[in-house]
């Protein structure tokens, strides 16, 4: 049965939304409709963290647990709140007593103009709920998506460190079971929708409902975390007629492992699939931890990164180099394809009408395989790549047995460096071979200049990455020999 409303908890109040334009963001809803102005607007593009809220969503086999995660309210469509608790900064205080994360900001002088403060408080709160006794690196990571122009970060980090050591149960812990029960009543089992001003939002709960809806509405827009899509509304002022939300489709939110591969549902956010990938490919795991911010990785999905087909999306080059494949579904039919074949031209893909990416299969690491990933951006955190290179290589007896190299930011699509690979495959792993590979790269790519980098910079850095990879693997090789001699 389809429910014509979106239902969620705003703090501890049950909200039933109907007749609201689904292009509305959570930030607009909070500030313009609810007049809750504690959540701030800085950039409206997911970059500054001033709008950070926390979502508690049902998790676990029996849906008896809550998963707390930070999110940028400015790029979250209101319909994606269905079945979740939206926690805002106004709700942290108990009576006159500040929540420990708020009190710590006061105690450590972590606020000057205060504009960024609610966002920092909410990111610290999400960390406080999700990780007990985090170390400094975890605190820095949790706060990397929040910008402050006044205070400097040390006092804020110190505050988050201090409050995270406070293990006393807060009001959220005391009301945990009640919140779970309230969210369960919202019937995540049933479809939900929202319509107004000729715009529709549909949230199916299983893959058949999704497939059937897309057959009936082939022009509908698939919505994962919305971390790309929402920008077309908040930055380019477009409106989207029909949104189909994938976040509640059970089959797209699964994560499976076989002996040979990891299978990631297209709607699984980065923060959930990264640990598994990290075990197989540590450098890839480290790179993913630099995609956007914690807020972005809590909501952005693998399907969205591929579906967006940006030439500077970070996952496609890595997936291509690793030989990942994906399953596409349309109606009752499915087809498999290498991720490499999905991209046809600038933002043009092989996705047919009514079709969607179901899941992505990533082969596990083989003995002797090295996966090197290099993300080149102006900042370490929360920055889009100028160039991204992924290199999967097997070196046996000092020569290159297998190699697969893919770049982002070098062409209109994420692409293999075929000439470069040919220059290396079967060749000795030497500086001469690397020089030939660097030269071959000029046959593979004629990069463009844009705000992130010039064509010359891109080519130079792409060649230097090959050199760096050579030195890194060479050094590892030398170290192994020293150990063997000893
Ligand atoms: C501040 C900020 C920083 C960012 N930093 C990075 C970064 O460092 N690296 C990076 O690569 N990206 C970055 N992004 C972009 C974005 O977060 C990622 O591309 C993310 O993976 C998109 O996933 P999503 O679920 O939010 O996609 P959505 O916005 O929901 O969708 C994106 C596109 O994919 C389509 N789509 C979604 N799911 C499917 C599916 N299952 N099948 C077919 N099509 C589908 C949608 O219709 C839409 O066209 C950043 C974005 C922001 C706002
Ligand atoms: S307002 Fe800047 S991230 Fe949302
Ligand atoms: S206190 Fe002013 S921006 Fe952070």
Strand content: 15-25%
Portion in helices = 25-40%
Heteromolecules bound: flavin-adenine dinucleotide, FE2/S2 (inorganic) cluster
Q: What is the mean pLDDT? A: 94
Which runs of at least 5 residues are low in confidence (pLDDT < 50)? 478-486
Based on secondary structure, the structural category is alpha+beta
The third-level CATH topology of the largest domain is: Enolase-like, domain 1
Count of DSSP strands: 21
Major β-sheet profile: 5 strands, mixed
Estimated radius of gyration: 23 Å
Strand order of the largest sheet: 1-7-8-10-9
Given this structure, which CATH class of the largest domain is correct? Alpha Beta
CATH architecture of the largest domain: 2-Layer Sandwich
Shape: globular
Number of helices: 17
Spell out the CATH superfamily of the largest domain. CO dehydrogenase flavoprotein, C-terminal domain
> End-to-end distance, in Å?
70 Å
Q: What's the number of structural domains?
A: 3
Enzyme class: oxidoreductase
Domain FAD-binding PCMH-type: 194-367
Domain 2Fe-2S ferredoxin-type: 4-92
Pfam family, one: CO_deh_flav_C
Question: What would your notes on this structure say?
Answer:
The protein has helices spanning 26-33, 100-107, 117-130, 136-143, 153-164, 171-174, 176-185, 207-216, 229-234, 270-280, 282-288, 294-299, 302-308, 315-321, 418-424, 431-444, 455-485; strands at residues 2-3, 6-10, 13-17, 52-59, 65-72, 84-87, 191-196, 199-203, 221-223, 242-245, 255-257, 261-265, 325-330, 333-338, 343-345, 348-349, 355-363, 369-376, 387-396, 399-408, 415-416. It has 486 residues and is α+β, with helices and mostly antiparallel strands. It has three domains: 8-185, Ubiquitin-like (UB roll), CATH 3.10.20.30; 191-251, Uridine Diphospho-n-acetylenolpyruvylglucosamine Reductase, domain 2 (2-Layer Sandwich); 254-485, Enolase-like, domain 1, CATH 3.30.390. The strands form five sheets. The chain has a five-stranded mixed sheet, with no helix packed on it. Strands 3-2-6-4-5 form a five-stranded mixed sheet. The protein has a five-stranded antiparallel sheet with strand order 11-12-17-13-14. α3 (117-130) packs parallel to α5 and α16 runs antiparallel to α17. Bound molecules: flavin-adenine dinucleotide and FE2/S2 (inorganic) cluster (2 copies). Flavin-adenine dinucleotide binds at residues 45-47, 75, 221-229, 246, 266, 291-292, 296, 300-301, 303-305, 307-308, 313-314, 351, 356-357, 382, 384. One FE2/S2 (inorganic) cluster binds next to loops. Residues 194-367 form the FAD-binding PCMH-type domain. Its EC number is 1.17.1.4. One of its GO terms (molecular function) is iron ion binding. It is an enzyme of class 1 (oxidoreductase).
